[in-house]
């Protein structure tokens, strides 16, 4: 039970069987978990058919309604931890992430010993194919915005192609993760970085989907824009509270020591 790739799906009938085949045929074993939100196009039925062909390699989690990519991943992480997987991956269903790159993410964690690896589009320049210029600017601008506000030295903070070693997901309070869209991707990296885990970015080329539709919305952009500021302030506040607690404990200890000495 080493590797499992979690793929959230909503209306991915045109991609699902091909992406499953592409992952399952890799030279290293990667199992797959699909978290489907009751896609009206029958994505889950297609997964059930594929499960007959690969009975031990595919897991299907069905939720009753479309509830966002972030909560789909949280659902998948909890299930993958229960099942005992050691390396847990995030990947889109639409081939914007090349399944072959899973091997690079695996290498960075399982061989080099990093705790998280990120398939990064912005290590050198911008490695994005077929995105309209507006979307490239939005994504690249978002990366700069996030690193400025949070101080996190990650070149592609909104990336959705990653590997987590299980100890990272065991350490993070998954029930407290609040965001659902791009902000979810930023929040997970921010928490991993804050806990001091070792993170490596590996270069990938992101290719826009050719089949099916993106689920990006203005709500998701707004969530990321304001969410990053809120998340950073919350984290500062927590640090401030921790410092305050430590200082008052230290003061109390000193007072007690002084009293003891005096008596
Ligand atoms: N279960 C579920 N899956 C969803 C939902 N919304 C999207 N998905 C699935 O999540 C994957 C990505 O969705 P897209 O709509 O194609 O995402 P995108 O806008 O191209 O965003 C990608 O790039 C962003 C960075 O530029 C990433 O932040 C994001 O996570 C994703 O990888 C696809 O497999 C899609 O079916 C949802 O509400 N529920």
Describe the SSE topology.
Layout: E1 3-9, H1 16-24, E2 31-36, H2 43-53, E3 58-62, H3 69-83, E4 87-90, H4 102-111, E5 116-120, E6 128-129, H5 133-150, E7 162-165, H6 166-171, H7 182-194, E8 199-203, E9 206-207, H8 218-262
Parallel strand pairs: 1-2, 1-4, 2-3, 5-8, 6-9
Antiparallel strand pairs: 4-7, 5-7
Helix pairs in contact: 5-8, 7-8
Bound molecules: guanosine-5'-diphosphate-alpha-D-mannose.
Give a description of the structure.
With 263 residues, this protein is of the alpha/beta class. Helix content is 48%, strand content 15%. The chain is built from eight helices and nine strands. The strands form two sheets. It has a seven-stranded mixed β-sheet, sandwiched between helices. It has a two-stranded parallel sheet with strand order 6-9. Helix 1 links the parallel strand 1 (3-9) and strand 2 (31-36). The longest helix is centred in the C-terminal third of the chain and has 45 residues, at 218-262. The termini are far apart. Bound molecules: guanosine-5'-diphosphate-alpha-D-mannose.
